[in-house]
Design brief:
The protein is α/β, with parallel strands linked by helices. The protein is built from 9 helices and 8 strands.
C-alpha cells in the first residue's frame, strides 16, 4: 500500500528531463559514458562523469535526498559482476547521521540486490570529510579506515563509493582491506571527477 501511496504523497521528477515518478529516469541514465581510472594498482570503474545532472543527483543525495539512491545504484550495478561481494567505502558516523544514511552503504546494498551479490559492511572511518580540502591534503590522507571488530571478512571484494576525485579515499580503503587479507578486485563508483577518467572509448576497446 505504501508503494502505491508514496508517489502521491512525495512526488518526484527526473533531475535530468523532468519526467515524473523517477528522480533520475532510465533515459537520462542511458546517456552515461563509463570510464576507468588506474590508481596505483587499483582498477576503478566509473559509471559516468561527475558532471551535469549526474553531479546534481549526487550532490542532492549527499544532502540527504534518498530518491537518488536507486537510480545511482543502477548505474553502479551495470559494472558489477554477478554475485560479487561489495564493500562500501563508508563515511563517518557523524556524516551518516547528518544526512540520515551512509550513501556508500546504501548504494552497495542496492547494487548487490540488482546483481544477486552480497555486501560485506566491514569498514569504519574516522576523521572529517575531505570536501573542500586542498588536493595535497587529500592525497596525503591515509589511515582513516579500520576493519570493524568481529567483522566477517570476504575472501575477495569490490569497493563501492559515489565519486572518485584524487583516489586517496579508495586507496586508503583498499590498503586497509589488503592488510586484513582481503583480495581487493577493484572499485566501482558512480562518477569520476573531471580529469580522473581515462579515455572511455580507448578503455572500452582495450577491455573488449
Amino acid at each position: 500500500m505504501w508503494r502505491a501511496l508514496r508517489p502521491w504523497l512525495f512526488p518526484v521528477w527526473c533531475i535530468g528531463c523532468g519526467a515524473i515518478d523517477d528522480a533520475l529516469c532510465a533515459a537520462c541514465r542511458s546517456n552515461a559514458v563509463p570510464s576507468s581510472v588506474a590508481l596505483a594498482g587499483l582498477h576503478v570503474r566509473a559509471a559516468t562523469a561527475y558532471a551535469g545532472h549526474i553531479r546534481s543527483a549526487i550532490v542532492a543525495m549527499k544532502r540527504g535526498e534518498r530518491a537518488y539512491l536507486d537510480p545511482l545504484a543502477a548505474l553502479i550495478a551495470a559494472h558489477v559482476p554477478a554475485r560479487a561481494v561489495l564493500v562500501p567505502v563508508v563515511t563517518t558516523r557523524r556524516r551518516a547521521a547528518e544526512r540520515g544514511f551512509d550513501q556508500a552503504r546504501e548504494l552497495a546494498r542496492r547494487a548487490a540486490l540488482l546483481r544477486a551479490g552480497a555486501v560485506a559492511d566491514v569498514l569504519r572511518k574516522r576523521g572529517g570529510p575531505q570536501r573542500g580540502a586542498r588536493r595535497a591534503v587529500r592525497l596525503s590522507a591515509s589511515g582513516r579506515f579500520s576493519v570493524r571488530p568481529g567483522a566477517a571478512l570476504p575472501h575477495a571484494a569490490l569497493l563501492v563509493d559515489d565519486v572518485v576525485t584524487t583516489g586517496a579515499t579508495l586507496r586508503d580503503a583498499a590498503a586497509t582491506l589488503a592488510r586484513a587479507g582481503v583480495i581487493v578486485a577493484g572499485a566501482v563508483v558512480v562518477a569520476a571527477a573531471p580529469g580522473r577518467e581515462t579515455s572511455a572509448a580507448a578503455r572500452e576497446s582495450d577491455e573488449a
